[in-house]
């Protein structure tokens, strides 16, 4: 279907409501609007009306629209050739809506967007509810018709639409009342800063600085905040976290300059430091008859607690108050202590040898944190087991070294610096994953925004030496290969996995992957064709990528993406296996389709060409994160519910790993997310 030149005369007829009836898809047809529409009278005025409509509807935030400044969104379909695409769909029988021709199709997509939801939005399925439902009231009938015709004909050089001026929104707080501003500031910090950065420079999510957000406008931003995206942005409105009004407040807040949060000194940290049970008053051997190495330490996110659950009996042994929105737990080298980090930077230390596990020390080292690790090296250079801890902070951007027995903080190292690629100063390089090397007294510290992997030698921790390895921006989460010599870390928004050799202390490879790899700690297994591999899921792609990890036995495949397994959807957060398991388990937690979000899949190691089986774990919430029991015979999966919905707050579902049969449920947990089995965490089994 080729359209040369604009049929603006026809459009003007349309605009005055003279035309009706659908034409054939291959000929320009007239809209069937019965509304009397005040019409512009020139081509240019008509095109301008369409551009105004695009702007008012915030369409460019989600679509590529030729001729519309800044319309480069990728959440919805590319509209450059939407008339041709629509015609194909009408012909192919794929289309299931109520339109009979292309023009009606385009109009329907605006006024009744869920009448037909296409199967492909830039490689991922389009989602119902993503397109705003209120465009028919927000836009005038004339604007809608102008948009329809604009998309039908596409702008040609003959049309001289005046480029839209983006009216800058005030970046001061005056857009919102004081109360609205402080609400938005707090909520942004709690819910959004993790992905978009405290200063909104972007990381796992895109940058949200005013130069980026203002051209999108309030409506487009609010739409995305409310509905989420198929690439991992949560649907805050649909989940009930924000009302439409709050969504709009947040959309306005995002168009203002981000406020700068405060720094934190060692003295301030020390004021929060408490030792509840000093080391000399702790038991010298386990006081419990339970197999404490088979405890699961489970994050109860919205309760600000962890539950310690007996992996043999499934009993909740205790729940312990920790930091706000607890993020992860890591065990000391001996496994006796658990270090739990809250998003508020509060670190809690739990002694599992007490009869009932109890908190023995706590401290706050920052306002926003995600990672914690301990010293694990024992060898020629000394015995550092359980001696030091390290907390990686998002804000302030620094890491802190603490005494591993008491949590007394004693060394702060700023991570502010220069980006790996353009060597530009970054004010907020956040500390993502941290792991302890088994070969040297070193931590591998991943500094997200500057894309550097720091090898921090802790043998003299007040004067640490740091080797800065260049990798790629947006380093996030990762894990060891099966030999524990190579650490593989996702540079998520760079669509790469960086591989570091902990023995040689150097970067081995940067492996290209599909969009936004998110491995958790990944999964190590032996592929029948490629030998030992480490696998990751992806937030932005419906795929598992496997990377060869055996440079000696399988040098041709080492540090290459050797296999891609297609999943039913994107939005995967975690993947897991066990050396004795026939399966690889994977979730799709952040998929915006509620059913996929609670679906998990297993892939058979013997036939990894496709998932063996996928199923819904519950009839509510999202399924997330896997952990094996100590024996490797059971897999525990979290159902991440809603803290204030009784009966649907969340639970853990336990499966027999060999038969895939459900064995038990541990119900009524408050938003359970990560689960860390003591034995498996100490021994890096995944
Ligand atoms: Fe996590 C690991 C950061 C959201 C659950 N998460 C990590 C790690 C980082 C990180 C840097 C690696 C730690 C390490 O190994 O030292 N997480 C972030 C974020 O910045 C992000 C994207 C946004 C935020 O606001 O925090 C984020 N994370 C989440 C969640 O929403 C999850 C699902 C539930 C929650 O906590 O609210 C979540 N993240 C986890 C878990 C791990 C994790 C369970 C550890 C996985 C493992 O098996 O080791």
Please outline what is shown here:
By secondary structure, the chain is of the alpha+beta class.
Ligand names = heme D
> Could you give the distance between the termini?
53 Å
Strand order of the largest sheet: 1-8-7-6-5
Give the biggest beta sheet.
Answer: 5 strands, antiparallel
Instruction: Figure out the total of helices.
Output: 12
Residue windows where pLDDT falls under 50 for at least 5 positions: 1-36, 157-161, 163-168
Structural class from helices and strands? alpha+beta
Q: Mean pLDDT score, rounded?
A: 89
Count of DSSP strands: 37
Radius of gyration: 27 Å
Instruction: Give the DSSP E fraction (strand runs of 2 or more residues).
Output: 25-35%
The residue fraction in helices comes out at 10-25%
What overall form do the CA principal axes indicate? globular
């Amino acid at each position: 279907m080729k359209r040369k030149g604009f049929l603006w005369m026809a459009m003007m007829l349309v605009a005055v409501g003279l035309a009706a009836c659908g034409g054939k898809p291959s000929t320009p047809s007239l809209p069937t609007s019965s509304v009397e529409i005040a019409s512009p009278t020139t081509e240019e005025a008509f095109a301008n009306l369409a551009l105004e409509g695009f702007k008012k509807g915030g369409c460019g935030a989600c679509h590529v629209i030729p001729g519309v400044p800044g319309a480069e969104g990728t959440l919805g379909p590319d509209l450059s050739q939407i008339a041709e695409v629509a015609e194909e769909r009408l012909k192919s029988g794929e289309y299931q809506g109520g339109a009979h021709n292309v023009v009606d199709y385009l109009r329907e997509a605006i006024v009744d967007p869920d009448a037909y939801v296409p199967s492909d939005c830039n490689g991922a399925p389009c989602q119902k509810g993503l397109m705003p439902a209120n465009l028919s009231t927000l836009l005038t009938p004339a604007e809608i018709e102008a948009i329809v015709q604009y998309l039908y004909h596409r702008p040609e050089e003959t049309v001289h639409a005046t480029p839209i001026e983006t009216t800058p929104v005030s970046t001061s707080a005056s857009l919102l009342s004081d109360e609205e501003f402080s609400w938005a500031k707090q909520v942004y910090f709690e819910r959004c800063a993790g992905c978009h950065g405290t200063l909104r420079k972007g990381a796992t999510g895109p940058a949200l600085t005013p130069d980026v957000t203002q051209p999108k406008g309030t409506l487009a931003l609010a739409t995305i905040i409310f509905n989420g995206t198929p690439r991992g942005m949560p649907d805050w409105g649909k989940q009930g976290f924000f009302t439409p009004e709050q969504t709009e407040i947040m959309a306005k807040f995002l168009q203002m300059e981000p406020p700068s949060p405060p720094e934190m000194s060692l003295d301030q940290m020390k004021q929060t430091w408490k030792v509840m049970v000093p080391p000399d008053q702790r038991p010298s051997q386990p006081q419990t008859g339970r197999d404490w190495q088979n405890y699961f330490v489970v994050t109860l996110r919205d309760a600000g607690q962890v539950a310690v659950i007996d992996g043999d009996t499934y009993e909740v042994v205790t729940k312990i108050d920790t930091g706000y929105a607890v993020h992860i737990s890591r065990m000391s080298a001996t496994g006796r202590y658990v270090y739990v980090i809250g998003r508020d930077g509060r670190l809690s230390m739990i002694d599992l040898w007490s009869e009932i596990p109890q908190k023995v020390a706590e401290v706050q080292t920052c306002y926003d944190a995600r990672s914690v690790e301990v010293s694990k090296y024992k060898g020629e250079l000394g015995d550092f087991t359980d001696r030091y801890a390290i907390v990686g902070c998002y804000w302030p951007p620094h890491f802190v070294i603490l005494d591993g027995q008491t949590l007394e903080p004693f060394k702060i190292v700023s991570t502010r610096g220069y980006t790996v690629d353009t060597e530009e100063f970054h004010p907020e390089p956040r500390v993502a994953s941290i792991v302890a090397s088994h070969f040297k007294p070193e931590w591998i510290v991943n500094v997200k925004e500057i894309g550097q992997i720091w090898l921090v030698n802790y043998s003299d921790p007040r004067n640490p030496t740091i080797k800065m390895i260049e990798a790629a921006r947006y380093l996030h989460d990762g894990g060891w290969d099966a030999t524990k010599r190579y650490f593989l870390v996702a540079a998520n928004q760079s669509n790469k996995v960086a591989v570091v050799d902990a023995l040689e202390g150097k970067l081995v490879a940067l492996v290209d992957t599909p969009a936004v790899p998110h491995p958790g700690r990944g999964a190590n297994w032996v592929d029948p064709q490629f030998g030992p591999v480490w696998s990751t899921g992806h937030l932005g792609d419906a795929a598992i990528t496997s990377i060869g990890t055996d440079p000696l036995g399988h040098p041709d495949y080492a540090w290459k993406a050797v296999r891609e397994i297609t999943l039913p959807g994107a939005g995967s957060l975690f993947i897991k296996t066990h050396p004795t398991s026939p399966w690889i388990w994977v979730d799709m937690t952040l998929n915006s389709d509620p059913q996929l979000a609670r679906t998990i899949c297993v892939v058979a190691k013997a036939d990894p060409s496709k998932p063996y089986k996928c199923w819904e774990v519950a009839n509510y919430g999202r399924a997330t994160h896997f952990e094996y029991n100590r024996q490797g015979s059971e897999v525990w999966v979290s159902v991440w519910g809603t803290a204030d919905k009784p009966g649907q707050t969340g639970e853990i579902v336990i499966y027999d790993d060999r038969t895939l049969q459900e064995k038990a449920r541990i119900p009524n947990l408050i938003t359970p997310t990560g689960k860390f089995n003591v034995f498996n965490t100490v021994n890096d089994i995944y």
